[in-house]
Design brief:
heterotrimer, A alpha+beta (172), B mainly beta (466), C mainly alpha (71), A: 172 residues, alpha+beta, Glutaredoxin, 8-stranded mixed beta sheet, 22% strand, B: mainly beta, 3-stranded mixed beta sheet, elongated
């Protein structure tokens, strides 16, 4: 009984120390790292070949996703909306699919169409370098190719923060 | 955050409702026939849904998953028959936050073993209510055929992440039948480690039960009143000690779930359960056998020319501990092997082993899942199939309930499922369940009686998930 | 002393676990509903109820874990 109480107290303490920091903060330019493997060429869902470097000079929202991931489904309509709203100001949404079988990505896109670039990384070349810790994971890259924000998962209660970060980078 | 946790700390589990939280990935699109369930849910106390206007309901229903199933359980030889419809409704708030509500009803009819031994003579037993009696022919199993009950059980479980590294669940449970009520709370907290490949879970539950048996509570070890005798009413009331009693059950569980590789998942856990209070079965009796040499050696011991039976009596505490290991593995061809082993030991002297193997054979949109289960238990220290004339006044605790004796059980089952477009699934499962008891075969005339008959039951489940 | 040994053993066990497992993007199979440890909670509940009323052992079974591991 005592042991259990002690471990729960420990749990509460650890918990209060590990609360996530506030979102919507951009990494300062001098601390930001360049997006890795930006020269790696991947097939797009529509059959072209593209690398992240092809979007240089734009603000790029890189989103790692997979067909089996529940929250990824929820993020697609929002990413469509971002692409439509901010494309003219220089935003590109680039969703990198990590399914081992590209057909699964195509099935998903049939159900939930994407109005943005979808790269197929079925050999998982990029996620390790980006340090992907959950699905989906997204990285906001500024016009100079530096990673300025990242978030794990898609949380509907945080979309305003995500959007604020995009807006801030677009006017930088 | 700390407030949530305090709730969890105080709240504690019936592990059965823990099992309702498999973190299933939520399929988004399914809509048909959910509307017809709105009424049912409303009556299940789901004001959340019922209160919404019609327009909102259509999209609200998309956030719900339902699983409706019915189990029919039938023992051979016209013994117990049970029907149990269940409906489980899960509201998904996001991929990891959900509320599960479950309602189960069951009705049970048929005869169940009273604990008495068969005899070379016909036997007459008082009904547990004290009103009337029933006769058992020579050589037949004493089954109490007044057995009939219906039960309703409701549970609610909320599970949600706290942050990326922690998740919790909290729930409540309520069940009621005409002579039994159970009220429980439960909670768990999980910590994810190693990129969520390791999950450590601490869970607990507390339940408070009350029993209000027909005819009142029998006094353990007292003699069953003789039906038809002149002092029956007097004797019957002398064998009672009030009308109801209660017990509490406290459980703790600590477990580790480990992802081994892309196709393999394992879980180990340890659980401890303490029961305290009235743990006796008020409807069970024990035969007293004549062990004095003579014509009646091995027959029922008689007092004043009438068979003597005593009410069973169990200890009023029980401490159970269990170790559990489960592995789930998906083969290259998508077939799934699910294997589990449980070892349980308690301070009643019971040890048990349970092995369970399921093989899910994937056939496109259909699947077949054969299942084998083997369970083996050793007897409780106070289990005796019968007592004797020279012993019965010296026993402190005794039960002849076959469920506390040496026993092996076997389940052989086959489940078939069909997954339809849109994510709904229709399934049926047929299983045969056999119980084989063993023990000392008695002496004298008793040797000729079947003291450990096998029981065979058929279970049929039909369900629909949508 | 004993407690320290147990804690050390637990830490060793858990760090051993760190070598096992998959990357977050390799959880496609683990995310399937049929790969959950309790893939059918309703069936599990019905079984538990039968076995609870017919055998001397109940509970001790599992809970969640594994899964999609999203977020």
């Amino acid at each position: 009984m005592k042991v259990i109480r002690a471990s729960l107290t420990a749990a509460v303490l650890t918990l209060s120390l590990s609360l996530p920091a506030a979102a919507a903060e951009l990494t300062p330019v001098d601390q930001a790292k360049a997006a890795p493997m930006s020269g790696t060429v991947l097939a797009t869902a529509s059959g072209q070949k593209k690398a992240l470097d092809d979007f240089k000079g734009k603000v790029v929202l890189v989103d790692f996703w997979a067909s089996w991931c529940g929250p990824c489904r929820q993020s697609f309509p929002w990413m469509n909306q971002m692409q439509t709203t901010y494309q003219a100001q220089g935003l590109e949404v680039v969703a990198i699919n990590l399914d081992e079988e590209p057909e699964l990505a195509q099935d998903f896109l049939q159900q939930i169409p994407a109005d943005f670039t979808v790269l197929l990384d079925n050999k998982a070349l990029l996620p390790e370098a980006f340090g992907v810790m959950g699905m989906p994971s997204s990285y906001l890259i500024d016009r100079q190719g530096r990673i300025r924000a990242e978030h794990i998962g898609f949380h509907t209660n945080k979309v305003n923060d995500y959007e604020d970060s995009i807006k801030a980078l677009l006017v930088e | 955050m700390a407030v949530d946790l305090e709730v969890v700390v105080v709240a504690v589990t019936k592990m059965t409702s823990q099992t309702e939280q498999a973190v299933a990935e939520h399929q988004l699109t399914h809509e048909t026939s959910k509307a017809s369930l709105t009424m049912l849910l409303a009556s299940a106390g789901c004001a959340l849904l019922a209160g919404l206007p019609n327009q909102a309901q259509a999209s609200e229903l998309d956030n719900w998953d339902f699983d409706a199933a019915t189990l029919i359980y039938a023992e051979s030889d016209s013994r117990v028959t049970a029907a149990e419809p269940v409906i489980s409704a899960t509201r998904n708030f996001d991929s990891e936050t959900k509320l599960n509500l479950k309602l189960a009803l069951d009705t049970l009819t048929g005869a169940s073993p009273s604990g008495a031994t068969p005899s070379d003579q016909a036997q007459t037993f008082a009904r547990p209510s004290g009103r009337g009696d029933y006769d058992i022919k020579a050589g037949e199993q004493p089954l109490d055929d007044t057995f009939r009950d219906s039960r309703a059980a409701f549970s609610a479980t909320w599970s949600a992440p706290i942050n990326r590294d922690w998740a919790y669940s909290a729930g409540g449970y309520l069940s009621s039948e005409h002579d039994y009520r159970s009220l429980g709370v439960n909670g768990s907290i999980s910590r994810y480690l190693n990129e969520k490949n390791t999950t450590i879970t601490l869970g607990g539950s507390f339940s408070s039960d009350s029993i209000d048996p027909e005819g009142g509570l029998p006094i353990g070890l007292s003699a069953m009143a003789v039906p038809g005798s002149a002092n029956f009413d007097q004797d019957f009331s002398n064998s009672r000690q009030g009308s109801s009693d209660d017990k509490t059950i406290t459980d703790f569980l600590v477990g580790v779930t480990q992802v081994i590789n892309r196709r393999t998942l394992m879980q180990f856990n340890y659980s401890i359960s303490a029961s305290d209070g009235y743990l006796t079965d008020p409807y069970k009796i024990v035969s007293v056998i004549d062990d004095s040499s003579g014509d009646n050696y091995g027959g029922n011991y008689q007092v004043n020319g009438q068979n003597l039976y005593i009410y069973e009596k169990r200890p009023d505490t029980r401490l159970k501990q269990a170790l559990y290991w489960q592995t789930k593995y998906q083969r290259e061809n998508s077939d799934i092997i699910d294997f589990s082993y449980r070892f349980m030991f308690d301070d009643w002297g019971i040890n048990s082993h349970t092995l369970d193997l399921k093989y899910r054979w994937q056939l496109g949109d259909h699947y077949l899942e054969p299942q084998l289960r083997w369970y083996s238990q050793s007897a409780a220290d106070f289990y005796q199939r019968y007592t004797t004339a020279s012993d019965y006044q010296n026993v402190d605790e005794i039960s002849a309930d076959y469920r506390l004796g040496d026993m092996d059980t076997y389940t052989v089952g086959l489940r078939y499922g069909y997954r339809m477009a849109g994510g709904s699934e229709l399934y049926a499962r047929l299983a045969l369940y056999q119980q084989q008891s063993s023990g000392s075969s008695g002496f004298g005339k008793l040797k000729e009686q079947a003291l450990y008959p096998d029981t065979t039951a058929t279970m049929l489940t039909v369900g629909y998930k949508f | 002393m004993k407690r320290i040994a147990v804690a050390a053993a637990l830490i060793a066990l858990l760090s051993g676990c760190a070598d096992l497992g998959v990357k977050p993007w390799q959880r496609d199979i683990l995310a399937q509903p049929e790969m959950q440890l309790i893939s059918d909670p309703v069936e599990a509940g019905l079984d538990d109820h039968i076995y609870f009323s017919k055998e001397a052992t109940s509970g001790g079974r599992g809970f969640g874990g594994g899964g999609c591991g999203c977020n």
